[in-house]
Amino acid sequence: MNSEQLKKQVAEAALAYINDYDMVIGIGTGSTVNQLIDLLPQVKNRIEAVVSSSEASTERLEALGFNVKALNQTGDLSLYIDGADECDAHNRLIKGGGGALTREKIIAAASKQFVCIIDESKCVDLLGAFPLPIEVLPMARSFVARQMVKLGGQPIYREGFVTDEGNQIIDIHNLKILDPVELELKINQIPGVVTNGLFAGRKADVTLIAQNDGTVRTQ
Ligand SMILES: O=C(CO)[C@H](O)[C@H](O)COP(=O)(O)O
């Protein structure tokens, strides 16, 4: 199976979690989620509204006629479905490859169940081979980068990229993330950091993993 087929397969498996009527669900961002959004019309009668983690997903959802609401209008959500860049055996994630990490983290925190959808190439023993995205206030970018060097990382500015919140991203290479919960908290304490792409404190509850043999594994 090629990569797009794997994404579609895991997106199809996620539809089973949209299993009630009048649901208000959170929807993430990225190419795997795009496959999910394109399948959502199949379960439209169960979805009252959607909270979206990016302008890109909002545009795609609205084009299909979904009612996209702000989180401030909905209260907590029963379900959030999103992709990831890396996932370890405990459903701890690195996210933010698409730059939507801040809204994603807020929606994940506000959701009772977080279902992550990935293919098996994203499963790792130790998080950190994928560069860890950090969203920073623009004036703090170089300062935060210097702090990350002290933590053993190699920061690369995602040049030309502006987040939906008007901030910037630095991607931290070569981090050995032995304690993701501790590192997530530590990075978030650096002044100027909006948030970082570790989803370890609030990790996925369930990860659906599309495997090359054509099956979907639930972790
Ligand atoms: O965190 C994300 C966006 O900020 C995405 O979920 C992550 O980058 C995975 O994307 P894709 O499904 O395209 O591989």
UniProtKB/TrEMBL annotation:
The keyword Isomerase applies. Its EC number is 5.3.1.6. CDD domains: RPI_A. Coiled coil: none annotated. SUPFAM superfamilies: D-ribose-5-phosphate isomerase (RpiA), lid domain, NagB/RpiA/CoA transferase-like. It holds the Pfam family Rib_5-P_isom_A. InterPro entries: NagB/RpiA_transferase-like (IPR037171), Ribose5P_isomerase_typA_subgr (IPR020672), Ribose5P_isomerase_type_A (IPR004788). The active site is at residue 104. Keywords: Isomerase. Pathway: Carbohydrate degradation; pentose phosphate pathway; D-ribose 5-phosphate from D-ribulose 5-phosphate (non-oxidative stage): step 1/1. The keyword Zinc does not apply. Substrate binds at residues 29-32, 82-85, 95-98, 122. Catalyzes the reversible conversion of ribose-5-phosphate to ribulose 5-phosphate. Homodimer. PANTHER family: RIBOSE-5-PHOSPHATE ISOMERASE. Belongs to the ribose 5-phosphate isomerase family. This is Ribose-5-phosphate isomerase A. It comes from Marinicella sediminis. The lineage of its organism: Bacteria, Pseudomonadati, Pseudomonadota, Gammaproteobacteria, Lysobacterales.
